[in-house]
Automatic annotation (TrEMBL):
Occurrences of domain Glutaredoxin (ranges): 13-75
Keyword Cytoplasm tagged: yes
Organism in which the protein naturally occurs: Hibiscus sabdariffa (roselle)
Cross-referenced PROSITE patterns: GLUTAREDOXIN_2
Protein name: Glutaredoxin domain-containing protein
Family note: Belongs to the glutaredoxin family. CC-type subfamily.
Length: 102
């Protein structure tokens, strides 16, 4: 598990995604809708995508995409992100991470 920490370091929001995944698209659209400064890694398009996906699975991400890190902390998948949104906790988390300014 050496790649993922380096990929999320010093980035306010990181989303591990697949370009063909509709839930990945939904989460990217939701977080991007806040105007968030986000980094997206499309695992089906990057050279070491399969290795990254295995690392995500080892840390408990099932399914392995989409996976969201905010402020270098694992938030989880779509269920966790949508729960934060419904509870009005997503925007404050993005603000604390420096991903958005209001």
């Amino acid at each position: 598990m050496e790649m993922v920490p380096g990929m999320v370091a010093d980035r306010p929001v990181v989303i591990f995604s697949r370009s063909t995944c509709c839930m990945s698209h939904t989460i990217k659209t939701l977080i991007g809708g806040f105007g968030a400064n986000l980094t997206v890694y499309e695992l089906d398009e990057i050279q070491n995508g399969q290795q990254v996906e295995r690392e995500l699975q080892k840390i408990g991400c099932k399914p392995s995409v989409p996976v969201v890190f905010i402020g270098q902390q694992l938030v989880g998948g779509p269920k966790q992100v949508m729960t934060l949104q419904v509870k009005n906790q997503l925007a404050p988390l993005l603000i604390r991470a420096g991903a958005i300014w209001i």
